Design the sequence.
């Protein structure tokens, strides 16, 4: 039987705990949730100088965070509402340097979704060039939702 697919507006739509947070991680980094549906999730960001390493290019950790957020959003777009799917693996390939001041667009897709695990992939583009890509694995936890620890 096919799982119901729901369309996500913002992450707080599937993780109510996020709506009560003063600022969550993606906001802190400046990420903008563009859209998510059964086909893909899209997140954008304008990298700033503070997101760069000492050589002036966007830090790999910042790119990995963007891939992590986008793959997480992509998997939640295909799972039933109320299902948690935290990452248990994220493998990143850095292909080209990313520069500050030019929008990064990350496109993620859920490639497989099962009862216990799900798989996603994503790529980051800047000016039409692939900067980095990732594959990720998620543990599927039906009936569990995220909570905020204060």
Sequence:
């Amino acid at each position: 039987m096919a799982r119901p697919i729901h369309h996500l507006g913002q992450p707080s739509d599937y993780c109510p705990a996020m709506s009560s947070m003063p600022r969550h991680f993606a906001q802190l980094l400046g990420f903008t949730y563009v859209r998510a549906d059964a086909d893909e999730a899209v997140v954008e960001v304008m990298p700033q100088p503070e997101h760069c390493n000492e050589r002036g290019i966007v830090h790999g950790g910042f790119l990995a965070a963007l891939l992590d957020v986008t793959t997480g959003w992509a998997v939640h777009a295909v799972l039933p509402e109320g299902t948690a799917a935290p990452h248990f693996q994220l493998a990143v390939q850095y292909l080209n340097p990313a520069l500050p001041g030019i929008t990064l667009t990350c496109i993620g897709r859920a490639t497989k979704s099962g009862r216990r695990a799900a798989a996603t992939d994503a790529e980051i583009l800047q000016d039409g060039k692939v900067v980095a890509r990732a594959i990720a694995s998620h543990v599927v936890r039906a009936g569990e939702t995220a909570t905020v620890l204060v």
